[in-house]
Amino acid sequence: MNSPIPTPVSCDITELRAQALHWAGETDPRRKADGVMAMSELWQAGALALDVDVNLIPQQPIPGRPALPELISPKFVKHRSMLTVEGRAAMIHALTHIEFNAINLALDAVWRFAGMPEAYYADWLQVAGEEALHFSLLSGHLQVLGYQYGDFPAHDSMWEMADKTNGDILARMALVPRTLEARGLDATPRTRAKLAQAGDQAAAEILDVILRDEIGHVAIGNRWYKVLCDERGLDPLATYAGLTVQYKAPILRGPFNLPARRAAGFSELELRALTGEA
Asked: 91 vs 104, 124, 142, 153, CA distance in Å?
């Protein structure tokens, strides 16, 4: 599978977290994805500085996003048959929207939370770059099907949880990567099977890439959640249970992809609690 080649984008900001905030505010999805991939390359080349202590203040709405797709309640999102091109396009569009949100979430983890080790920012920059690649692959495939990102309504559940957890990095790590994004580990194999059964092998191969990378992303969330729990002298399991109640996180229902969750760093005790065996 050929990866899309980023369109050249320019940003004069030479500090990582400030540039992450710049791209978080970008409203054009293509420019955002290309800019984030370029930023990741600049960081890898040692061309960006890092100020872990500065508290950044956005000068534009966050996240930056286009006028479309229309954002509606999840209960009003239509379910279409995967046997039609429109139905498959609607599914790909939903996945594309998830990846667009995931770019913004990873950028938010970089610019919003000061005072973390350099490895934290490097980890979330890696996530942002990979989410940008996923968005590019899916939006490109959507065009092959005759549609564009924005052609179908979408919901905003992931970003709503980001808003709720803006004031506490521990809650953010617990409830976005370890809860909402981890749901993708459970759902992606089933979605892949449906797309493959409908004859869309190209989409199935894209989901293979996404599942592989998302295991790593959830692992990064697990890593920093546990680091923060250790720093605060908190029990990870009891703290997580309390945070899900405090922030009204969605109740997770199976089936669960336990091998993927193990690979992403969930402990056996956590998995037993998840499946109701604790």
From this structure: 20, 27, 10, 11
* Contact present, 229 and 186 (Cβ < 8 Å): no
Which residues have CB under 8 Å from 215's CB, separation 6+? 185, 260, 263, 264
CB 66 within 8 A of CB 101: no
Average pLDDT, the chain: 94
Give the model's confidence band at 4: pLDDT under 50 very low, under 70 low, under 90 confident, else very high.
very low
164-206 pLDDT tens trace: 999 999 999 999 999 999 999 999 999 999 999 999 999 999 9
The DSSP call for residue 115 is: S
Is the bond preceding residue 69 a cis peptide, omega within 30 degrees?
Answer: yes
In angstroms, the CA 71 to CA 48 distance is 35
Per-residue pLDDT reduced to its tens digit, 66-83: 999 999 888 777 777 888
- Token pair in block for residue 65: 């996003």
Are the C-beta atoms of 93 and 154 separated by less than 8 Å?
yes
Structure tokens at 189: 């194999």
Quick check: helix, strand or coil at residue 156? Answer: coil
Residue carrying structure tokens 């809650």? 171
Fold of 16-274: Ferritin (1.20.1260)
What 8-state DSSP symbol labels residue 49?
B
What is the model's pLDDT at position 73? 85
Q: Tell me, what's the pLDDT at 12?
A: 86
Distance CA 39, CA 86 (A): 34
DSSP letter at 29 equals: H
Beta bridge partners of 49: 15
Q: Which of 120, 130, 96 is nearest to 203 (CA)?
A: 96
Residue 120 three-state SS: helix
